[in-house]
Design goal:
It contains 18 helices and 14 strands. With 435 residues, the chain is an alpha/beta fold. The protein has two domains: 194 residues, 3-Layer(aba) Sandwich (Rossmann fold); 204 residues, Rossmann fold, CATH 3.40.50. The chain is elongated, with a radius of gyration of 24 Å. The model has no long low-confidence stretch (mean pLDDT 96). The site of uridine-5'-diphosphate-glucuronic acid has 21 residues, from helix 10 and helix 12.
């Protein structure tokens, strides 16, 4: 099949490379000339394990192309994917659809023969109808079907998520479009991945409902963690105890400093707006948003409290800044709020992250970015583990202890065992584990 992928952001690039690896001929299109030049030179603008190799392989085998000019690729395509950004619109929580609609208009004038237009961007319910209307209006002769095909990729694990998904969701009424979609995903179909065919609006809602439900799970366990601390229980054991119940499931029950990233915060907010516009109370979603926002600041309070209520003049080392490991993404990362609150309380911040320090420089000031974890820890009064990168899981504890001015460790990801840390002479605290 011939695929045109509009947008070479995270979703477009990963999906394009994976479809090429399935054997399809894929052209990724972006207006940003420097981005396309970089991609043609083999540089990948995002940090995603395995992506560089996958792109290089498929470029070399002449199945993957990058261009700023959509004309040829869209004209010849069986399927044109819209994978452009839908950021939160300034001032309210609605998703900004400017880029989606602009892409639809551009595609309309270029398609030839029956073409499936696939929306992969995360969009409010009804956007597919609007895309359909734009195309029909712009090119009344166009033969096309608009499909919703949401993505469920996690940053840092995106290639595996694409190639071994739990399910593929295809939202359309058109049998011809379903046929094209099945052909595109055929390698998965052979692996018996469920392909769910729904109405387009249902598919659009599935994406928001999935992200919101995961955000609910995380926020729920975070509140239970707070309770554990007060009543003398252990949240990891609670997670295990409830997660082994198949109806609940073990995943996304790790308590931590609150969810961040480019998806959960944006999508929960957008879902809340969709609810408000439809006059439906989405109280759970609304309180998840509020509880999670509050939590990030409360993590700084936890650090201050643990250090005796006053951090002014103290030096605090942060290990991990990205919103989660294996990414350089700083969007909505809890570290941003933690750093800013600690600084306001008078603390000096040293920090190290294996991938996100360049990004972090854009969103935090007066932070000493260090060369490695031990450099960050040096002469600090406390170390706060904010992101659970693997390399922080097995630090040399003796070295850490002798580098610190005070052996204070605040582990916001529960990657160390409390008893062991205390035995090794640390003042240690973590999330939801009373001892
Ligand atoms: C999320 C979804 O997991 C993907 O399925 C979805 O496709 C994607 O959003 C999207 O809409 O594009 P992602 O934002 O990359 O993926 O990251 P997650 O691994 O889901 O983590 C999100 C946040 O939740 C992180 O801050 C992470 O630290 C936090 N989290 C996750 C927890 O605090 N506890 C957990 O148990 C799991």
């Amino acid at each position: 099949m011939r695929v045109a992928m509009i947008g070479t952001g995270y979703v477009g690039l990963v999906s394009g490379a994976c479809f090429a690896d399935f054997g399809h001929t894929v052209t990724c299109i972006d207006k940003a000339v420097d981005k396309i030049d970089a991609l043609n030179a083999g540089d990948i603008p995002i940090y995603e394990p395995g992506l560089q190799q996958l792109v290089a392989k498929n470029v070399a085998e002449e199945r993957l192309f990058f261009t700023t000019d959509p004309t040829e690729a869209v004209k010849n395509a069986d399927a044109v994917f819209i994978a452009v950004g839908t950021p939160t619109r300034r001032g309210d929580g609605h998703a900004d659809l400017t880029y989606v609609y602009a892409a639809a208009e551009e595609i309309a004038g270029l398609i030839e023969g029956f073409t499936v237009i696939v929306n992969k961007s995360t969009v409010p319910v009804g956007t597919g109808d609007e895309v359909e209307a734009i195309i029909a209006r712009t090119n009344p002769d166009a033969k096309f079907a608009v499909v919703s095909n949401p993505e469920f990729l996690r940053e840092g694990a995106a290639i595996n998520d694409f190639k071994r998904p739990d399910r593929v969701v295809v939202g359309t009424d058109s049998d011809a479009a379903v046929k094209v979609m099945r052909e595109l995903y055929r390698p998965l179909y052979l692996n018996e991945t469920p392909i769910i065919v729904t109405k387009r609006r249902t598919s659009e809602l599935i994406k928001y409902a999935a992200n919101a439900f995961l955000a609910v799970k995380i926020t729920f366990i975070n509140e239970i963690a707070d309770l554990c601390e007060k009543v003398g229980a252990n949240v990891q054991e609670v997670s295990r105890g409830i997660g082994l119940d198949n109806r609940i499931g073990a995943k996304f029950l790790h308590a931590g400093p609150g969810y961040g990233g480019s998806c959960f915060p944006k999508d929960t907010l957008a879902l809340a707006r969709i609810g408000a516009d439809a006059n439906v109370d989405l109280d759970i979603v609304n309180s998840v948003i509020e509880v999670n926002n509050r939590r990030k600041g409360r993590m700084a309070d936890k650090v201050i409290e643990f250090l005796g209520g006053d951090v002014s003049g103290k030096t605090i080392a942060l290990l991990g800044l990205a919103f989660k490991p294996n990414t350089d993404d700083m969007r909505e990362a809890p570290s941003i709020e933690i750093v800013s609150r600690l600084q306001k309380a008078g603390a000096r911040i040293r920090a190290y992250d294996p991938a996100s320090m360049k990004e972090a420089e854009q969103v935090m000031s007066d932070v000493l970015f260090c060369d490695g974890p031990y450099h960050a820890i040096e002469n600090s009064d406390a170390v706060v583990i904010v992101t659970e990168w693997d390399q922080f899981r097995a630090l040399d504890l003796d070295r850490m202890k002798s580098s610190l001015k005070q052996p204070n460790v605040i582990d916001l990801r529960n990657i160390y065992e409390p008893d062991y840390m205390i035995e090794r002479g640390f003042n240690y605290t973590s999330i939801g584990r009373a001892y």
